[in-house]
Amino acid sequence: MNTSNQPYTHGLWIVKAGNEKAFIEEWSRFAKWTAKNHSGAGNAHLLQDSDNPQQFVSFGPWDNTESIKNWREDLEFKKFVSKAKELCDSFQPRSLRRVASSAD
Description:
Elements: E1 7-15, H1 20-37, E2 45-48, E3 55-61, H2 65-73, H3 75-87, E4 88-97
Antiparallel strand pairs: 1-3, 1-4, 2-3
Helix pairs in contact: 1-3
């Protein structure tokens, strides 16, 4: 995979108090589904803020922007976002591209 200008998806999640475990389970299920069903997806990661456990960041690399577009148009993606919105106060999705790295 060429990492120059590599596309990434990123999400900032604010989970409703008490829903952290359910959110992690839903996100993990969906990330595994994505890896199995969308060949352009790289390894996805979910991070939880140590100081504010209701805040999460998700991110992962993709082969190309067309793969991201296809993923976001998939009915399973829409179902996941709908379920996640029930568990969250806020969700901010982003599409990003790598422009620098400590390995450069």
